[in-house]
Amino acid sequence: MARDPSRSWPWLPDFLRRPQSHAYQPVDANGTFEDRASPYAKPEDVERRAANPERRVSFWANSFFAGVGVSLATLSIFSILYWLISCNLSSSSLNKGEAGNESLARYPTDFLRDVVPIPCHSHNDYWREMPLFSAIRAGCISVEADVWLFHESTELLVGHDTAALTLNRTFGSLYINPLVELLDRMNPKTPFYNGTRRGIFDVDPEQSLTLLVDVKTDAATTWPLVLEQLEPLRSRGWLTYLEGGAVHERQVTVVGTGNAPFDPLTDKSAHRDTFFDAPLDSLWKDPEVPDTETVRRYDYYNRTNSFYASTSFKEAIGPVSHGVLSEDQLRTIRGQIKGAHGRGLKARYWETPNWPIALRNSLWHTLVTEGVDILNVDDIHAASELVW
Fold first, then answer.
1. What's the pLDDT tens digit per position in 91-103?
2. Are the CB atoms for 304 and 344 separated by under 8 Å?
3. 20 to 30 A Cα–Cα from 303, which one of 28, 37, 51, 205?
């Protein structure tokens, strides 16, 4: 039986002093609600309920489905509003020229003011969500672009293979133009500053960014176009160059690899602003024999023509058994690093194992400990956390 509220709460007003609704009363032996009508109900209402017991079930079923319908309609309205707002914001960004790399380049000192440069090379950088900017935001001091030239075009396309090439992803749009804009903003001409020597990292303005250009097509036609498209950086004095046999480091250091030609880089007397990626596996020196001189006259590769000395880890060192480098492998690594450093070059291994993660991190740590100058990384976020 329903409890009279007036017994427990005498202060209740009269309109609340009613027995409980039949919806909350016990059911009878047949599984239907007992018909305990309110004393305020009319006799004809009681007779109608007695004649139509299904009416109660129908009422609750209709209420349930009506609630579901209202909920779905409300959710649909919110989804449509969210989509419209998102489209409007995206359209506004595009209209303002803030799509792609340009949105991050608006305020470079804010964008990079807390970034600490780390000795990492962004391998296949054009695969990043934001080519160039993702790498430098992580602190990488080196990025890589694979360039292709087809049908006497005036554009160098950037991509890992021909299936990945598109007409709008060019060497200029992804790398040269953003670098020019970024360095222009880092070196403003104002009443307070009129310098030209600040690099892209606000924390270390003297740190140069290495732009590794991997030439995929014929060198005779591709490399001259690479040199031509570097002109916006060259004319502003932002390219590391060789003059009078001495190397002068600037904000961007361009290094050619792949099909890039080596012979044009051997003239020490020429003014030149590109360098070569020497073969690390051919520079080995016995790590246990002390050197009496660093660079010998008959060495092909040295600091005047090259910058990196690189090789495939997989081919030069081999697989890592049980996650541990053997003594022979360590000796090979030490000899190659010694050969690179003796020539004034920076040692780099590509095709290092990426999996398992523990092996990758351990190998990174070993390579840095042994003296590798730049880590070739695919996971730039892990590298930025200094897991090595």
1. 444 444 444 555 5
2. no
3. 205
Asked if 225 and 256 touch (Cβ cutoff 8 Å), the reply is: no
Give the Cα separation of 340 and 356 in Å (integer).
29
Q: Please give the Cα distance from 328 to 316 (Å, whole number).
A: 12
Q: Which two tokens stand for residue 346?
A: 């920076």
Tokens of 246: 């001495």
Structural contact between residues 310 and 277, judged by C-beta atoms closer than 8 angstroms:
yes
Residue-range domain boundaries for the chain = 5-52, 110-384
Q: Is the dihedral of CA 330, 335, 336, 341 positive or negative?
A: positive
What angle do helix axes 43-51 and 54-95 make, rounded to 10 degrees? 90
Q: For residue 345, what is the DSSP state?
A: -
Span 43-73, pLDDT tens digits: 665 555 555 555 555 555 666 666 777 777 7
CA atoms within 13 A on the CB side of 233: 28
Query: What are the structure tokens assigned to 276, written together?
Result: 């070569």
108 touches 114 (CB < 8 A): no
Mind listing the pLDDT tens digit for each residue in 136-145?
Answer: 999 999 999 9
pTM: 0.71
47: helix, strand or coil: helix
Q: Report the alpha-carbon distance of residue 319 to residue 316 in Å, rounded.
A: 10
pLDDT-based confidence at 21, cuts 50/70/90? very low
Q: Which two tokens stand for residue 350?
A: 């590509």
The model's pLDDT over 75-119, given as tens digits with 9 standing for 90+, comes to 777 777 766 666 555 444 444 444 455 555 455 456 677 899 999
CATH 3.20.20 fits 110-384, yes or no: yes
Instruction: List the one residue out of 255, 253, 141 whose CA is nearest residue 201.
Output: 141
Distance of CA 224 to the CA centre of its chain: 30
Q: Which residues pair with 306 in a beta bridge?
A: 276
Phi/psi region, residue 70 (left: phi>0; alpha: psi -120 to 50; beta: rest), is: alpha
Residue found by looking up tokens 């740190």 in the block: 207
**Residues whose CB falls within 8 Å of the CB of residue 230, separated by 6 or more in sequence, listed in order:** 176, 239, 254, 273, 274
Q: 121 with 368: CB under 8 angstroms?
A: no
Lowest-confidence segment of 59-63, 161-165, 279-283 by average pLDDT: 59-63
Q: What is the pLDDT of residue 112?
A: 76
What pLDDT band is residue 20 in, cutting at 50, 70 and 90? very low
